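User: I'm curious what two different proteins look like when written out as structure tokens. Can you demonstrate?

Assistant: Sure. I'll show them one after the other, since each token string lines up with its own sequence. Here's the first protein:
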Amino acid sequence: MNIAQTIKSSLVNLAVNKFRSFLTMLGMIIGVGSVIAIMSIGAGAQSLIFNEITSFGTNLVGVIPGGSEEGAPPAAMMGVMITTLTYEDAKAIGNIPHILAVTPYSNGNANLSYGDKTKNAGFVGVSSQYLGVEENKVSQGRFISAAEDESTTRIVVLGSEIKEALFGENNPIGERIKIDQTSFVVVGVMEKKGSSLVANRDKNVFIPVKTAQKTLLGVNHVGLIRVKIDDEKKAPLVISEIKKLLQQRHNIKDPKKIDFTVQSMSQALDMIGTVTDALNAFLGAIAAISLLVGGIGIMNIMLVSVTERTREIGLRKALGAKRKNIISQFLTESIVITFIGGLIGIVGGSLFAAIIAVGVQYWGYDWDLVITSFSVILSFSIAVIIGLLFGIYPAKKAASLNAIEALRHE
């Protein structure tokens, strides 16, 4: 038989036992679909992280306490408390050329209360330049003033959700709220920003950084300094100047003992991309194991098929079929099973990934549907190769049957 006849014969044989053929394909369907879905979901999650971070602006530079190895995150990002950065460091950084705005951050969590209403929320100690760095806006009242940067003034600017929780539709400007047991005067309300993966700034309140340090936290350090520059192409120059300045301020002579990390937004994205790419590859490899399980299923079913069709094999050999013809027939059936299963898996995996993307987008997150040709070709190719490899043994077993003994088989 030629190739076309062999494939047609394989399809006829598979159609005889439709349910068994479907169960045989199921391993390939699940395997291929899992690889495509997981790699797509991983790429979508990566895009979500990238979109959320770049929404802050691509011309940002972050200064984080604690040194770090090349390409590794600083210890502060792993939850280690490091107290090397100060408010005065942030002020000094603001004098470097090409810097438009700079603000330190000193964060905490507290109970907010107004009358009989109480709300647990995060407070963020920042400077008056925060609006220039984060590109936030005030919808009512005002923000922290430059004069209040240098004092422990007890004023607070509410996030929109906190305002709604404590005051409803009433005007909060001039009212007093308590942050834990300390009284603060409300001077402003932030414009609604909406929820994001990184943070929900609508659920925070903003106070002067020194007030956060001295009055609420009792510390002298800050947790982060964020800088906005006039041109993201100048980031390497600005980073170099910040490093020189902080080394002088911290009296660091040995570069190996640097107690801070300076990163641009692009560097942070590269680091995150490396981590998420490795995670995606790992998850894809785990999903691909199901293809191996599917291959074992194909081999088992094909061995059963050899036993069931022993007389047919004997008859073909008696009529002149050669060893290569028998091998070709059974290998073709294995490949046809994996081919059809792979196609169904591609459709199913893509559909599942699309449903996940639509669901995440429905909840307001910037999630991209990413189905790469690489994931499709890779999973499908592995499926076909596994079908071929696991079909060899049953095919050889069928071809090795003695024609006379096969014809006697009941």
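Here's a second, unrelated protein for contrast:
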Amino acid sequence: MLKLIPDRIEIRSGKQFIVLLNNRTAHMLDLHIGDRVKVKNGKYEMTAILQISEEGFLDEHIGLYMEAWKQVHARRGQRLHISLCDKPASTIYIKEKLQGKRLSADKIDEIIKDIVADDLSDIEMTYFVSGCYIHGLDNMETAELTKAIVKHGSHLNFGDRLVVDKHCIGGVPGNRTTMIVVPIVTSTGLLMPKTSSRAITSPAGTADTMEVIANVINDAGKLQKIAEKVGGFITWGGGVDLAAADDHMIRVRNPLSLDPEGMLLASIMAKKHSVGAKRCLIDIPVGPQVKIKDLKHAKHLRDRFIQIGKLLGIKVKVVFSDGSQPIGNGIGPLLEAQDVMKVLKCEPDAPQDLREKALYMAGVLLELGGKALPGFGYRKARKILEKGIALEQMEKIIDAQGRKKLPPNAKLIYKVKTGKEGKVSHIDNAVIARLARIAGAPLDAAGGILLRKKLNDKVARGETIYEIHCDNEDRMNLAKEISRKNNGYTIREK
């Protein structure tokens, strides 16, 4: 065991503990980048990952990143005990997956335990993701991965009460059905504790849109109380430790956009399993512009969702939806929130496509939850909406989570007009989403796109097809320039 003088390095490493040795000291101890070392200061100790500096660092000194310094209560001038640690057994199992071997439940559990404990480096986690990407995960492995993710995170427990949930694979701008479905379903007495994501590459996630009107960062204890009080919530999944390992793996998947199918399924099902869901609706948008391009792939995913659901004790219903154009009129947090409230208030200018899709999905969940007879779910959902019950329930959810004052509309509005007369025959989702992000969404809640025309709508020459909403002049100028080159609409002339 070596005794070294600690130096504090003013760099944050996240949750992982990182220490730094100079090249000479590391060579003397036969240590290499990525090795694990145990650092002990009296009763305080930690396992840290080693980085090596070529120069500028003194012999007999060890650098501790800020989290590591705090963990062992280090002080300048003292000496810390340093010793070499073996790599976790999970690294052996990761190597087995890279070799194409099937992993047992125990091995998957060990990997996930070490991921949550920050005992695996990003490189080691990336190798695990790569092994799953190259060789895949069968249904049993996927179910065991789901269970492990839930086991090593927080979860909610509602006893024998029936919990329902929903998820959309994504890829369609707008599509804020969750914020309409949850109040409809929970108004009947069903529990629907909904965790949602923020935008990664889209103009808004459900959590971004809900955050316009309510707090979406809550711990598991508070969420449990909210659900027991009002029947459900709509919160940001990343703000509560319900699937911590999944957040780690998503982080290392993003740079190369590695999305192993088994991990995608486990990621979705873990979020459902962690809130105790026994009935689940999966929405798979299908179309050339979204994640799932054709019906064959959609059916393959449907079958896997249903089979994995059975292994987890969750009854899964999968629906295919149209991914050919945005859902709703607003693209961006504030504009989407306004769409949702218009639907809940049954206002005449509420987007009918968003209303109808939400009613259909709420109807399916009412049937799954035993609150409507087969074939009568849509009718019951529509009655709940039209009688104002859904709006009243949404107000209760907002108050329970913490009501927010709506931000003002964007200061700048630019109308994009067509130079042709005819019918809208195609809307490019990617162009519309990009323009909304350039306009500021999702970080600027008011930024985005307000659609004035949808597929098959008639347009006159010079008529507005959509508006760009923005609070920043430079962003607006860039959005204008891009829209002039390609506005994302195809007009079929008469």
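A detail about the second structure: The chain has four domains: 2-85, 90-136, 164-241+262-401, 412-493.
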